[in-house]
Amino acid sequence: MASHAQVSVTAVSKVLNNAYGVSPAMKNKVKTAIEELGYRPQAVARGMRGRTFTLGLVLPHIRNPFFADILDGLTAYLETTDYQAFMIQGGATRKVEQRAVDALLSRQVDGIIMVAPLASKARLEEVAKEKPVVVLARHERSPHYDSVFDDDEAGAELVVRHLIELGHRRIAHITHQDDSIARSADLLHSIRSAAYERVMREHGLEDEIAIATSFYHEQGGYDGARELLRRAPRPTAIFAGADQAALGALAAAHEAGLSVPADVSVAGYDNTHLAALPNISLTSIDQDGHEMGRAAGKLLLERIEGRRTPVRFTVTPTLVVRASTAAPR
Amino acid sequence: MASHAQVSVTAVSKVLNNAYGVSPAMKNKVKTAIEELGYRPQAVARGMRGRTFTLGLVLPHIRNPFFADILDGLTAYLETTDYQAFMIQGGATRKVEQRAVDALLSRQVDGIIMVAPLASKARLEEVAKEKPVVVLARHERSPHYDSVFDDDEAGAELVVRHLIELGHRRIAHITHQDDSIARSADLLHSIRSAAYERVMREHGLEDEIAIATSFYHEQGGYDGARELLRRAPRPTAIFAGADQAALGALAAAHEAGLSVPADVSVAGYDNTHLAALPNISLTSIDQDGHEMGRAAGKLLLERIEGRRTPVRFTVTPTLVVRASTAAPR
DNA sequence: TTGAAAGCGCTAACAC
DNA sequence: GTGTTAGCGCTTTCAA
Q1: How far apart are CA B309 and CA A171, in angstroms?
Q2: Where does the HTH lacI-type domain lie (chains A, B) (predicted)?
Q3: Any atom of strand D under 7 A from CB of A41?
Q4: How far apart are CA A12 and CA A197, in angstroms?
Q5: Which of these, B49, B53, B154, B225, is most buried using a 10 Å CB contact count?
């Protein structure tokens, strides 16, 4: 490359990093050569001295369409930068997640975004000691990494209040259980669940509290709802902590011969685009994943540029009422 | 690291690569030191001389749960190896896809798996000239890369025959249109679409052929089905080329006040786990994505190890009949 | 403003 | 069986 342009490798490097001390003429010469050769700098070699211009995005899995919104937001933001994000699946256990993070670290990514990680705060801080970290969907306050999350407390409250206002009293909840050892107050599903309990209590419905502990996926929602719908008296509404679970709850209701919302109302969380389909028409909470992904990218780059003070970015959830919830009969 | 173990860096390298010429004693010494230090070899530095032990998986997007099956199969296979796969979104245009591939190439991945790529065969071969490539879900025969796909011709035929055997004659189809400039005979959606037409003809139903060209996603299926259901006479069955589109078709049917399968039968392709939910219960084609991901990983590693002869791995699709299809009334 | 040269952490060729 | 050494393609001093 350098020889083709008849300049030094240093010059090429400087142009690539638009560093100080290159004449416009030199810059042009190099840029022309880059074009002509279709030259692509080896991120790997750059990484030996400095940055790889690579970010890691650790997703628990890729089955939740909400994650796609986050990814799209991140990608859109990075488009204007030299950085590229690679995704890796964190999986269902801390061990697998740790392996994914190690894989990223050993490949010298410049920073890591972790979505709803299972790792403890202490573990995340260890990672943050090596590379800049932004954590999505967890609420703890760490001096060593940034956080991006929606106000799950408020979101869950919106759903439960909505159901109560419709006249429901026997409102059940499906929550998620995972391998995490983080404080429950920092985990989104625990927060949603706790908010559900709190609002129920505040309305004198403590005796109606009914929680199925399952998983935030279709099968989990199905299992959870089956269990809840077998109880007597049967709940008249189910708040599933995530749309994916709500889809399973709708399936369970259908299978039990119950019609939604006439026999049982169902609400979710995340407002995935499936929720908007007319035959599903699921009441849900919207939390702008695109914006969250975008913010995560921005914060991570800031940290890579040297920021050390922690930032917390929150998104305000909004209730989207659809046909899956109505007054009980 | 080497100094801590009191051995040469060469020894460490040899142990890491379990290469020829290290005594068991040396091996132990090094392994102990690795443990003690929590040493993680820098893939980036290894990559300067040889391999990065990193594979790239280019997915069009992460909204199709079928891709998650592929990823799981690939991950399961790689677990027994030293390789790690990173995902990157290929997007909806050739340009964005090319950028993703370039990002992978400039990061020196050892090989690339492309799922349903938009690029031309010639372009894929150029990439394959730089790094080993395995292409999923395309049918062309290239001497320079391996292919993994299901027999879309057979799969589509299974669906259409099934509908015909139920007694349907006005069977419509929803197909996908993308930015690809590959030969249509190599694109899965074109193959499914062509097989639909062929089987219709073979049964003397050429006059009933009705195709909506849209997209393999929920909105696409919805739009396509709306268009088809407005036609007079209305089709009694819709074969959507993918489950994601079928979900949209179910929504459109619902919205039009049509009940499934009484008024209109709907079938999909991919047998995503959503299809199995009781309230959706979508007839679909299963094509073992897990096995496809696994095979792709295996073939790619073989190529990295030096294989030059192309391999084509095909999966046999099977029909899964559920409640969304029935005899017309 | 420019380029020569050192060195990032490894691997591979080679000498011991 | 073991260690020494020369790079891999960049970035970053540092002289010119």
Answers
A1: 62
A2: 1-50
A3: yes
A4: 61
A5: B225
If one counts the domains in chain B, the total is 3
Average pLDDT of chain B, as a whole number? 95
Residues B159 and B282 in one domain: yes
CA–CA dist A202, B227 (Å, integer) = 49
Question: Which range marks the domain in which residue B14 is found?
Answer: 2-40
User: How far, in Å, CA of A290 to CA of A17, rounded?
Assistant: 29
Check whether residue B182 and residue B215 sit in a common domain.
yes
**Percentage above 70 pLDDT, chain B:** 100
Instruction: Measure the CA–CA gap between B108 and A103, rounded to whole angstroms.
Output: 15
Cis preceding linkage at B278, omega within 30: no
Asked if strand D comes closer than 7 Å to A12 Cβ, the answer is: yes
Q: Clarify whether residues B184 and B102 are in a common domain.
A: no
Q: Which two tokens stand for residue B93?
A: 């245009």
What is chain B's length? 329
Two tokens at A231? 């109880």
Cβ-contact A279, B255 below 8 angstroms:
yes
Q: Measure, in angstroms, how far nucleotide C5 C1' is from residue A48 CA.
A: 17
Q: Is residue A322 part of a domain?
A: no
- DSSP H helical ranges for chain A: 2-5, 9-16, 24-37, 43-49, 65-78, 94-106, 121-130, 152-165, 188-202, 218-230, 243-255, 289-304
- State the Cα–Cα distance between residues A36 and B51, nearest whole angstrom: 28
In a domain, A45, yes or no: no
CB B91 within 8 A of CB B61: yes
Taking residues B1-13, report their average pLDDT.
81
Question: What integer pLDDT is reported at residue A17 of this predicted model?
Answer: 83
pLDDT value at residue B20: 80
Q: If you average pLDDT over residues A162-169, what whole number do you get? A: 98
What pLDDT is attached to residue A58?
A: 98
Cα-Cα-Cα-Cα torsion B87, B92, B93, B96, nearest 10 degrees, comes to -30
Q: Does A277 touch chain B (CB under 8 A)?
A: yes
Q: Are residues A196 and A310 in the same domain?
A: no
Residues B55 and B92 in one domain: yes
Mutate to test the interface with A, among B263, B279, B281, B282 (most CBs of A within 10 A): B279
Q: Within 13 Å of residue A284, how many CA atoms lie on the same side as its CB?
A: 24
- Residue window 47-76, chain B: list those with CB within 8 Å of chain A: 47-48, 52, 54, 56, 61-63, 65, 67-68, 71, 75
Q: How far apart are CA A127 and CA B207, in angstroms?
A: 64
| A67, A84, A251 ranked by CB distance to B103: nearest | A84
Residue B326 domain flag: no
CATH number of the domain encompassing residue B259: 3.40.50.2300
pLDDT above 90 (res A1):
no
Chains A, B: CB contacts within 8 A come to 117
User: pLDDT tens across A62-108, in order?
Assistant: 999 999 999 999 999 999 999 999 999 999 999 999 999 999 999 99
Q: Write the single-letter amino acid at B1.
A: M
For residue A39, the number of C-alpha atoms closer than 13 Å in the C-beta half-sphere is 18
Max CA separation in chain B (angstroms): 83
Please say whether the beta carbons of A303 and A132 come within 8 A. Answer: yes
Residues close to nucleic acid strand C (C-beta < 7 A): A 7-11, 14, 20-23, 25-26, 48-49; B 1, 9-10, 12-13, 16-17, 19, 39, 41-42, 45-46, 48-50
